[in-house]
Design goal:
302 residues; alpha/beta; three-stranded parallel beta sheet; three-stranded antiparallel beta sheet; 8 helices; 8 strands
Length: 302
């Protein structure tokens, strides 16, 4: 089929008809290079080091927005509290959200795999785990990474834990490199203001080439449906349904078609294994994780 993905053999298939017909080849490994330490717990020591005064910033309990969120779902403040779930954006003046930090999301991916909800319908997660996270040496604080991701840190309760459906706690290795991204924050003097985070992104694969500005196709207005990227959530779900239809999985499609709402699909038996993983991880390791149900859109099959 491809050098990356294959059809699973009959004896490998799930008892749920049509679920996860594909698998990543056994000899494929997935590695990730990040030019900066992931925001959240893995970068707290770096954040403290960068402050003139490393005293934790106080939480404004009189702020109505602060009162609406659990005390553990914090941004950059409370430096002294380590190993907790943090939100992003993390700036004190940013909108309050339930979006989790990159550190927390990567930590969860050690159990749910790199697959999203929709792709987990098509691909078995067993070979879809990150093997190595590679960071510039200046961004890699060993104790922070071990606390955030490792077996002796907050994930310790899940050591050797396995779930049904091919899921398991698969901690990735952390590797430091002297190779720096050419346009990293450290490529310019500290006094320089020339470097800015870009709002432009490129999507490129054998089937799609796109330029995105603020998450939408270049040249399209903010609310124009035609401005949606091929990799936006709604298009990804629609493509998943099209693949399932092409594979001939009527029972699977029927169970999805009972409701057009994505959040209803995620609560169905199709995602029971994945939801069990998330429930266990957030209960035993990532306490303070609050589910974000705000992204509930409709997707019509076909």
């Amino acid at each position: 089929m491809s050098p990356i993905i294959r059809r699973r053999e009959v004896h490998e298939l799930s008892e749920k008809e049509g679920l996860q017909p594909f698998s990543i080849h056994d000899d494929i490994q997935l590695h990730m290079y990040s030019s900066e330490a992931p925001c959240g717990d893995a970068s707290m020591e770096l954040l403290m080091e960068a402050q003139v005064d490393a005293t934790p910033w106080p939480i404004d309990q009189n702020n109505p927005a602060t009162k609406k969120l659990p005390v553990l779902l914090r941004g950059r403040e409370s430096f002294g509290e380590l190993g907790i779930v943090r939100r992003k954006p993390a700036r004190a003046d940013s909108p309050q959200t339930l979006s989790k930090s990159c550190s927390d999301k990567l930590t969860l991916k050690q159990c749910t795999s790199l697959l999203s909800s929709c792709t987990s319908l098509l691909v078995n997660p067993a070979n879809a785990y990150l093997e190595t996270l590679i960071l510039p040496r200046s961004q890699c604080v060993d104790r922070a990474c071990e606390r955030c991701f490792g077996l002796t840190g907050r994930m310790k309760p899940l050591h050797k834990h396995e779930w049904s459906g091919g899921y398991a706690f698969r901690p990735f290795k952390i590797r430091a490199t002297d190779h720096e991204f050419a346009f990293s924050r450290r490529s310019k003097p500290a006094s320089s203001r020339e470097l800015r985070t870009s709002n432009i992104a490129a999507v490129c694969n054998p089937h799609v080439q796109e330029t995105l500005i603020l998450g939408r196709l270049q040249g399209r207005q903010k609310l124009d449906p035609k401005g949606a990227s091929a990799i936006c959530s709604k298009r990804m779900w629609k493509t998943t349904l099209q693949v399932l239809a092409a594979l001939g999985t009527p029972k699977l499609l029927q169970s999805i078609s009972e409701s057009p709402h994505v959040q209803e699909w995620k609560k169905s038996a199709l995602f029971a294994d994945r939801q069990r993983v998330k429930a266990d991880v957030t209960a035993e390791a990532l306490s303070g994780w609050i589910r974000n149900d705000g992204d509930n859109f409709e997707v019509e099959p076909g």
